[in-house]
Amino acid sequence: MATVVGIVRCAVAPLSRTRVFRALAPIVLPPAERMMARLTNGRVQLSGLLVPSLVLHSTGAKSGAPRDTVLMYTPDGRGRAIVAGTTFGQERHPGWTYNLLAHPDASISVRGRRLPVHATLIADDEREAAWARIETQWPGYRAYERDSGRVVRLFLLQPVADVHRLSM
Question: Is pTM, for the whole model, over 0.70?
Answer without folding.
Answer: yes
